[in-house]
């Protein structure tokens, strides 16, 4: 509790933290749209492949990716 009170009372430090938050957020992986999209596409691709490997996958599903899954 004392640490929280000390940090909350350190106005100059709070001002410095607040001043840098936008730039820190811009530089974070959360705002890297290219990386996010690539990771999302990879996740979709992995889900698709797992679905194709499932015995219940429709016969036409593999043709969409040119894959040969039975």
Describe the protein's architecture and organization.
This protein has three helices and no strands. It has two domains: 1-31, no CATH class; 33-70, no CATH class. The chain has 70 residues and is mainly α.
Primary descriptors:
mainly alpha; 66% helix; 2 domains; 3 helices; single chain; 0% strand; 70 residues
Whole-number count of domains = 2
Helix- and strand-based class? mainly alpha
Q: What form results from the Cα inertia axes? A: elongated
Strand percent estimate: under 5%
Fraction of residues in helices?
A: 55-70%
Q: How do the SSEs run, as a string of H and E?
A: HHH
Describe the structure concisely for a colleague.
The protein has 70 residues and is mainly alpha-helical.
């Amino acid at each position: 509790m004392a640490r929280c009170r000390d940090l909350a009372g350190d106005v100059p430090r709070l001002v410095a933290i607040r001043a840098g938050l936008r730039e820190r957020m811009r530089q974070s992986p959360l705002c890297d749209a290219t990386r996010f999209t690539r990771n999302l596409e990879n996740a979709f691709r992995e889900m698709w492949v797992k679905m194709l490997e499932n015995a219940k996958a429709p016969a036409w599903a593999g043709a969409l990716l040119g894959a040969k899954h039975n």
